[in-house]
Design a protein that fits this description.
The protein has 1465 residues and is mainly beta. The chain is 3% helix and 38% strand. The protein has 5 helices and 133 strands. The chain has a 15-stranded mixed β-sheet with strand order 1-2-4-6-7-9-11-12-13-14-16-18-19-20-22. A hairpin with a 6-residue loop joins strand 101 and strand 102.
């Protein structure tokens, strides 16, 4: 083998490496890195004595990391050079390098766009040479840092972020960029997880999947109008550093942010910011650094949510926040935000954890026991006194509380660095009082723990000494007071009477508790001590420990054993009260009763009083104490002493009232009743028993017939009769509440039939029987004529007429299929002749009759003029003219031998007058004509002004002036005898109007001018300057200055049917005089009120109620309050017995193979529509007809066609409704649409738009879901995924302007069905049917419509809720049939200020009766669901929001998509 120079060099490196024990780099990497060392002055690296850089992987360990003979990580810190670092400096070197850092260098422009080797993390810090910022696609590096001042004020287009980049950081200090989101993540494949930048503006990030981190810092020139794009960011950790703003710009409902850190100088608030009203957010942790202005008169200005960690840092609160109410899982930290030093005496709020700290002021005072309902941390202060025992008991606990969100998990450290007198880990805990109850839910694996000073983490305890409580099921009902948890590992205490609990904290003791607290103490033995004053009682179900329950022991006739010295679940020991001694030396003392009271129980037993005697004999069955107090056990002998009414050895038997049962029976001691002999009855067996007649082996024929066995007589029911009730009794039909209509009609109650009299007929004799008139002795003249004997009228045949059909009927001549040519011609059918109208003639009236024009009551003006009545035209004589010959023919005067002087002059031979041209005048046009000046196209401005056309001058009337009379001359109004009322007022005599001075107004300046205070009526009204009073906007504002609003509700958060807190969101103003709330005419006492929120305690109720809010003498009614139904809800059609009903929401869960709201449809086994062919072939559906879906871009109608049936869905109109329910404005939504489209790899969207009002736009979107994994949508906290191939249709209404505050909106939607044609599908043809289910009282969450035709079904579902201004509330839906083939759905919306969102949905199904092939013998009942569904939602801004239709399909290409593509051509 021949060795080249590189091989020899590598051998040399190996020798050096072995000598120095340093692993050498491969030659190529070594050479590359030596070039970098020498070109960029990397002084950390030096040559050894052999002239080799042998320490590359050793000397600069922080800069170079090697893996074997390769560099895997490089930090490029230059030693000072002006050389430019090019991409070629790396070339193909360092193939295994995964991480690269370049600091303080000028680089070639292409370096940041190139992935060097296989680098996954690149950090470019303080680099230069980036020309124009980031101008092209960045490389596919997973983690990329670009810190460069070259980026200052450049634009970062998000589309330049590589799809394979997970983290991008350009947040170099002092470098702010502009963002542009055009084209970002167009294919939806980006894995971006972190984005960090300093920015001048925000843009939408909705095109990205949820991020992990998003950190931005706003510049001093930040465009705050772009802050709203925060709502498009879905992220785990949001961090914002800003300059100014309001809190609601950063924290909002419908947020998709888990953790937020906001450091912004917030504006001073005007009201509390209510986070508790957020229902759709995902916040778990919020930190704000708000600045000094963010407080309300020194108070904390935020209403906190129930479950969230909230930190308030560097604020300026002067009122200590000891009044906050949060949930048991919340944590609130106040860090250097409270300026007062006095720690509050009482805790007035609620919540999980509170931590208070101050770096400037130290809190002073003491901590009250009221803080025990929350976890408290208040270290590094000057507090004194005692730490409450609820905290101090756990100073010695070393284990960490995993449930606390406080940073200091140790209880001892939370109170460190204060002046507490009991701050000692060895402080004894004497107040620990736990109670553990087993929840009887059939599983017996869950406990509830309550008590005093029980701490904040009960999972450290052991049930049954070894079983831990599961942290995953740990529920905090009230901190320090009440917890619920489940035992781990499937352990349970089923069939266990009691169980011990090892309390490892705080005292490491064991107490035993019963599984059923309703069992009284069970006495097993009573030992009389020899001292004569002590008793030891043993058994079970005693007080688990001293003071656990109220327990007392007493010896009847002797005294109380009042001092209980010890107690546990298995017994107690007590000492007799002072001065009382047990007579243990007197053996003649009879048995005594010992009485033990525990809570509400009182248990007794007989005992023998004798020194050291143990009364421990067991009585039979414990004397039945388990079923009641029937007896008392004698523990000295083991016998039961029965109480009156009880018998038996265990006193379980019950005595009868007559012990011998009157000698006619015997006593059953089990039930305590007499069992009589067969001839007697009654509780004492004294009443004889007489049998009734028997029929069919049954007394009184059985059934509902009854027997009186004291008399032996049967009482038959309404359908039987006879002594033994064996004969039937049948009612005859009734009419007018009478059998057989009464009268002379009779009823046969044996058969139940009527026998009608001669004037009645029918099964109930309700129909009259009337004779018809006779002719020739025959009713109705006989023949084919018929008699209706119910009315007495004759129905004559085609050749007769008259009341008795005695007159003949002769037809007249027929023309064009009509007698006498129809129209207004008449036929005399007794003679068969025609009477023609004025425009026809002839025997059959077929010839026209046209009159000539009439003048002076004469055709063609009479005279010698003639009329042609065939054509209706006149032929005039020589002296007449015109269509009716009414105009004369007259010669005009002549001049110079010519009529009207000739030239351009013309003669009117109807009047004999001349029409002279513009330069002549006179009767014969012989005189010249000079024009006067014109104005407005008229000589001398027309009117009563005159023109002397011989001189060409104007004479103006009294109201005009000027050479052409064009200038007006108008007098101003007179007041008090003066023009414009005199004074400083002025008159403009060209306009005749007065210019009034500052103290007058009116057309004549006679009215005073008085300003209102304020002048603009607070922009809520118009000033009446005559009175100086504000006229407020009607039904919007009131009060002298228009500051009292007409309040309204946008949404409601109702209570359950059991009552409770009800919240109303809307606008209620700042004035609340005499505020009262009623729900369904019942008072709802106020709990909280603000400008936008009212909370009250709702009474119990059900269904939809009217809410009435009265304040400031203004009454407002809201008819959309629906109680939350805690009872079971019903499902439509009981799920057709093909599914199960979810009674929580009234929805069916269909069995496999079934679909639809009521599971009445069957899923298509064949798949998709095979391209959506419109033919009647099976289209690839396994014999099932395909579905074709389309949209009309002009009307916005959506159509779904299947075979010959076409369903339509469209929005008909939008209405504005006033307070009285009247329509005040109507907008048609069926025309004027314009169309645009966007088309990318992952989505196809078509947009239809139109505008109403001046700036209210309505936008409809149609989107094809082309992502193979589908696309996720969210509505009202519900997330659903649309599968690949689905189509989403939406309609949005933006910037709607109401006429006044009390008005609402109504949206009308139409669903209809048409039959396109007739085909060979006759076996499926059926008439249209429309069914609706409208649940108004909460029986179900949904309303339904179903339109059926030819065994195809369009099904619609409307949820009884909408989201109004971001909050769910009740939606009222009403439905009515527009025709036999269509239905109208009206959606009544509240007064939504910002947005309304509703969510109906539609789907097309096939009835189980559908036959896929008419006349085919195979499976003619095969049925399926057409794979198309429509889901709609409405989203609006300022009014209602977007209406969405989603069209689901299973397989195949989209015909709908093909149609959409045609729209764009």
């Amino acid at each position: 083998m021949v060795l080249n120079k590189s091989h020899l060099f590598f051998i040399f490196l190996l020798i050096v490496g072995c000598y120095s024990q340093v692993t050498p780099l491969v030659p190529a990497e070594y050479n590359c890195f030596v070039n970098l060392i020498e070109n960029f002055n990397l002084t950390k690296f030096t040559k050894d004595t052999n002239g080799i850089y042998s320490n590359i992987c050793q000397t600069a360990q922080t800069d170079i990391t090697c893996s074997g003979n390769y560099i895997s990580k490089m930090v490029f810190n230059t030693g000072g050079t002006d050389n430019v670092l090019f991409t070629s400096n790396f070339s193909t070197c360092f193939p295994q390098m995964m991480e690269l850092t370049i600091n303080n260098l000028k680089v070639s422009p292409d370096l940041i766009y190139t992935r060097i080797s296989n680098v996954e993390t690149a950090r470019y810090s303080n680099i230069s040479g980036i020309v124009g910022g980031i101008t092209q696609l960045l490389p596919p590096i997973r983690v990329l840092f670009i810190y460069s001042k070259d980026l200052i004020d450049t634009t970062l287009r998000l589309e330049y972020i590589n799809n394979k980049t997970y983290s991008l950081d350009i947040s170099y200090t002092g470098v702010y960029v502009y963002l542009n989101s055009d084209g970002a993540n167009a294919d939806g494949l980006s894995i971006l997880g972190n984005f960090y930048a300093n920015i001048h503006n925000l843009v939408s990030f909705s095109m990205y999947k949820p991020l992990n981190g998003f950190r931005v810092s706003y510049s001093s020139t930040f465009d705050y109008s772009s802050v709203t794009f925060i709502k498009t960011i879905s992220v785990n950790q949001l961090t914002i550093y800003g300059t100014v703003g309001t809190i609601n710009q950063y924290l909002f409902d419908n947020s998709r942010v888990s953790s937020a850190y906001i450091s912004v100088q917030f504006d001073a608030p005007t009201e509390y910011f209510d986070l508790s009203s957020f229902v759709n957010h995902t916040y778990t942790k919020i930190t704000i650094v708000p600045g000094d202005l963010y407080h309300l008169n020194g108070e904390f200005p935020v209403i906190l949510p129930e479950k969230c960690e909230f930190t308030f840092t560097s604020g300026n609160l002067t009122v200590f926040p000891n009044y906050l109410n949060t949930g048991p899982y919340s944590t609130v930290n106040f860090l250097s935000s409270i300026k007062t030093t006095q720690f509050p005496t009482k805790f007035l709020g609620s919540g999980g954890s509170y931590y208070f700290s101050s770096t400037v002021n130290h809190f002073v005072g003491t901590i009250d026991n009221s803080w025990c309902t929350t976890e408290l941390g208040v270290s590094s202060g000057a507090l004194r006194g005692l730490v409450p025992s609820c905290f101090a008991c756990y100073f010695n606990v070393t284990s960490m509380n995993t449930y606390s969100k406080l940073q200091q998990k140790s209880m001892f450290l939370r109170f460190a660095n204060n002046n507490f007198s009991n701050y000692n880990k060895n402080t004894p805990c004497t107040t620990f009082r736990p109670k553990v109850e087993l929840i009887n839910d059939g599983v017996f694996n869950k406990v509830i723990v309550t008590g005093n000073d029980i701490g904040f983490d009960v999972t450290l305890w052991k049930i049954n000494l070894t079983i831990s409580l599961d942290s995953a099921t740990y529920v905090i009902n009230q901190n320090g007071k009440n917890y619920t948890a489940t035992m781990v590992g499937g352990n349970n205490l089923k069939n266990v009477e009691y169980f011990p609990v090892l309390f490892t904290t705080p005292n490491n003791v064991t107490y035993t508790f019963p599984t059923n607290y309703n069992i009284p103490p069970i006495i097993k033995s009573v030992l009389i001590k020899s001292t004569g004053n002590q008793i030891q009682v043993s058994g079970t179900h005693f007080s688990s420990y001293l003071e656990f329950t109220n327990q007392q022991i007493q010896i009847q006739n002797i005294g109380n054993c009042s001092t209980i010295t010890s107690s546990d679940f298995f017994g107690a020991q007590c000492t007799m009260e002072t001065g009382k001694q047990l007579p243990i030396s007197n053996s003649t003392i009879p048995l005594q009763i010992i009485s033990i009271e525990k809570d509400s129980f009182n248990v007794k037993a007989y005992i023998k009083i004798e020194s050291n005697f143990n009364n421990n004999q067991v009585c039979p069955n414990d004397c039945s104490t388990s079923v009641g107090v029937n007896s008392i056990c004698d523990l000295s002998s083991g016998t039961c002493k029965c109480l009156p009414g009880f018998v038996g050895s265990d006193c379980l038997g019950l005595e009868c009232s007559i012990p011998d049962c009157s000698g006619n029976g015997h006593c059953n001691y089990t039930i305590g009743e007499c069992i009589c002999n067969s001839s007697y009855q009654g509780s004492d067996c004294l009443i004889p028993l007489i049998p009734c007649p028997v029929y069919g082996s049954l007394p009184c024929n059985g059934g509902s017939n009854t027997c009186n066995n004291q008399t032996g007589v049967c009482t038959c029911d309404s359908s039987h009769q006879g002594d033994d009730c064996s004969l039937p009794l049948k009612d005859c039909p009734t009419y007018n509440l009478l059998p057989c209509n009464g009268g002379l009609n009779t009823c046969n109650n044996q058969t139940g039939t009527c026998d009608c009299d001669s004037s009645h007929q029918g099964s109930d004799c309700s129909l009259p029987l009337i004779d018809c008139p006779t002719s020739n002795g025959l009713p109705c003249n006989g023949g084919l004529n018929k008699c209706n004997n119910q009315t007495g009228n004759c129905d004559c045949d085609s050749s007769h007429q008259g009341s008795d059909c005695s007159l003949p009927l002769i037809e007249c001549p027929i023309v064009s299929g009509l007698p006498c040519n129809g129209a207004s011609n008449t036929c005399n059918n007794q003679t068969g002749t025609c009477n023609c109208d004025s425009s026809h003639q002839g025997s059959n009236c077929s010839l026209p009759l046209v009159q000539c024009p009439i003048f002076s009551s004469l055709p063609c003006n009479g005279g010698s003029n003639t009329c042609n009545n065939q054509t209706g035209t006149c032929d005039c004589d020589s002296s007449h003219q015109g269509s009716d010959c009414s105009l004369p023919v007259i010669d005009c005067p002549e001049s110079n031998g010519l009529p009207c002087n000739g030239g351009l002059n013309t003669c009117n031979n109807q009047t004999g007058t001349c029409n002279c041209d513009s330069s002549h005048q006179g009767s014969d046009c012989s005189l010249p004509l000079v024009d006067c000046p014109t104005s407005n196209g008229l000589p001398c401005n027309g009117g009563s002004n005159t023109c002397n056309n011989q001189t060409g001058t104007c004479s103006c009337d009294s109201s005009h002036q000027g050479n052409d009379c064009s200038v007006p001359l108008i007098e101003c109004p007179i007041a008090s005898g003066l023009t414009c009322n005199g004074g400083l007022n002025k008159c403009n005599n060209q306009t005749g109007t007065c210019d009034c001075g500052p103290s007058n107004q009116g057309s004549d300046c006679s009215l005073p001018y008085i300003d209102c205070d304020p002048v603009d009526c607070n922009s809520n009204g118009v000033c009446d300057t005559i009175k100086g009073e504000c006229n407020c906007k009607e039904n919007s504002w009131s009060g002298p200055t228009c500051l009292i609003p007409y309040h309204y509700i946008t949404s409601a958060i109702p209570s359950t049917t059991n009552g409770g807190v009800a919240s109303f969101i809307g606008f209620f103003g700042n004035y609340h005089n005499n505020l009262s709330i009623t729900i369904g005419n019942l008072p709802c006492p106020l709990l909280y009120n603000s400008t936008t929120v009212l909370n009250c305690t709702a009474p119990p109720g059900f269904g939809v109620k009217v809410v009435v809010i009265i304040q400031n003498n203004i009454t407002y009614s809201y008819d959309k309050y629906q109680y939350l139904n805690i009872n079971n809800q019903t499902c439509p059609n009981k799920c057709s017995n093909q599914g199960t009903c979810n009674t929580l929401n009234g929805q069916c869960k269909c069995n496999n193979g079934f679909n639809g709201a009521d599971c009445s449809g069957i899923i298509n086994p064949g798949g998709g529509n095979n391209g959506g062919s419109n033919s009647d072939s099976d289209g690839g559906n396994g014999g099932n007809p395909p579905t074709d879906t389309g949209v009309d871009p002009g009307s916005g109608n959506t159509t779904i066609s299947n075979q010959e049936v076409q369903f339509q869905i469209f929005f008909k109109s939008l209405y504005e409704i006033d307070f009285n329910g009247n329509i005040v404005e109507t907008y048609s939504l069926q025309n004027s649409w314009t169309t645009n489209s966007t088309n990318s790899k992952n989505e196809i969207i078509y947009t239809l738009s139109q505008t109403i009002q001046s700036n209210c736009s309505i936008i409809s979107k149609i989107e094809e879901i082309t992502n193979r994994n589908g696309k996720e949508f969210t509505f009202a906290d519900e997330t659903f995924n649309l599968q690949y191939g689905s189509i989403k249709f939406s309609i949005g209404i933006y910037n709607y302007s109401y006429k006044n505050n009390l008005n609402t909106l109504k949206l009308e939607l139409i669903s209809s069905v048409d039959q396109l044609s007739s085909d060979d599908n006759e076996c499926n043809e059926m008439d249209t049917s429309i069914n609706t289910i409208n649940n108004k009282d909460g029986e179900s969450t949904f309303n339904y419509i179903k339109i059926s035709k030819n065994n195809k079904i369009l099904e619609g579902r409307f949820i009884n809720k909408l989201v109004s201004d971001g909050r769910p509330t009740y939606l009222l839906t009403s439905m009515k049939n527009e025709s036999k083939d269509s239905i109208s759905i009206s959606l009544d919306l509240p007064h939504c200020v910002e947005s309304c969102i509703i969510d109906p949905d539609f789907s097309v199904l096939i009835s189980p009766e559908f036959k896929n092939e008419c006349g085919n013998s195979k499976d003619e009942r095969k049925s399926y669901v057409i794979p198309v569904a429509v889901v709609a939602s409405v989203v609006g801004v300022s009014a209602i929001g977007a209406i969405s239709f989603l069209i689901y399909r299973k397989k195949g290409e989209s015909v709908f998509l093909n149609k959409l593509k045609k729209l764009n051509k």
